[in-house]
Automatic annotation (TrEMBL):
One protein family per Pfam: Cytochrom_C_asm
A GO-annotated cellular component: plasma membrane
Protein name per the record: Heme exporter protein C
Domain of life, source organism: Bacteria
Record's keyword terms, sorted: Cell inner membrane, Cell membrane, Cytochrome c-type biogenesis, Membrane, Transmembrane, Transmembrane helix, Transport
Functional note: Required for the export of heme to the periplasm for the biogenesis of c-type cytochromes.
Gene from which the chain derives: ccsA
Subcellular location: Cell inner membrane; Membrane
Organism classification: Bacteria, Pseudomonadati, Pseudomonadota, Alphaproteobacteria, Caulobacterales
GO molecular function, one term: heme binding
Length: 239
């Protein structure tokens, strides 16, 4: 991992890996979509249960992406490594997109199940706060012209946002919430009906691989952008 922290090694290693990830993500998404429509409706929720195959993976990836952003921010802030900063920056947009998708699909699922589009439930509120951290991170970087100062300020905010991750994860255990507790990964085994597991697990794998493809592609793009800026700065100095 630390060997790949060198931008040249990283670019050489991820060059052939990125297209493989995109192909695998597409294949898993197609397979997961087929499983989702092939699964039967729930005896209580009917076809509404199919929202689970989008909502659960999106919510999981929203958390995972912010974890990647926070850890990358730590290495960028402590070791001042440009590749770590590029990794943190690259995780923000897809993480925000997955979190927004989780909020929208959660509302669509909650309305027929709970009779309302939104409640200030601990889980829902903490996921909304997570989304706001993503927006704040991107806005802070965009508001400071000096990239070095923007990177440090955003890294601090990224680290602060890590506090919210366990709150999102354990909010249903710590407080009396309307949102159901964990049903896939829990002590005593999953409570998800086996007929839904192929679709759910395939879609979760598809979202994870898709995030990996987007993240690595974005990091590579950021490395190239910074190299171009460096070359322009050198050319300007020579001129």
């Amino acid at each position: 991992m630390f060997g790949l922290a060198n931008p040249d090694r990283f670019m050489r290693f991820t060059g052939p890996l990125v297209p493989v990830l995109w192909i695998c993500a597409l294949g898993l998404l197609l397979l997961g979509t087929w499983f989702s429509f092939a699964a039967p409706g729930d005896y209580q929720q009917g076809d509404t249960v199919r929202i689970m195959f989008i909502h659960v993976p999106a919510a999981s990836l929203g958390l995972m992406a912010y974890g990647a952003l926070g850890v990358s921010s730590f290495f960028a802030l402590v070791f001042r490594h440009p590749l770590a900063d590029a990794a943190a920056r690259a995780a923000a947009v897809p993480g925000a997109a997955f979190t927004a998708l989780a909020l929208v699909t959660g509302s669509l699922w909650g309305q027929p199940m709970w009779g309302t589009w939104w409640v200030w439930d601990a889980r829902l509120t903490s996921v909304l706060v997570l989304f706001l951290f993503y927006l704040g991170y991107m806005a802070l970087r965009a508001s400071i012209d000096d990239e070095a100062k923007a990177a440090r300020a955003a890294a601090v905010l990224g680290l602060v946002g890590l506090i919210n991750l366990p709150i999102v994860k354990f909010s249903v255990d710590w407080w009396n919430t309307l949102h159901q507790p964990a049903s896939l990964l829990r002590s005593g085994g999953t409570s998800v009906d086996p007929v839904f597991l192929p679709a759910l697990l395939t879609m979760m794998a598809a979202y994870a691989v898709l995030f990996g493809a987007i993240w690595l592609t974005s990091i590579r793009t950021e490395v190239r952008r910074r190299r171009v800026l460096t070359l322009r700065a050198r050319a300007a100095l020579e001129a």
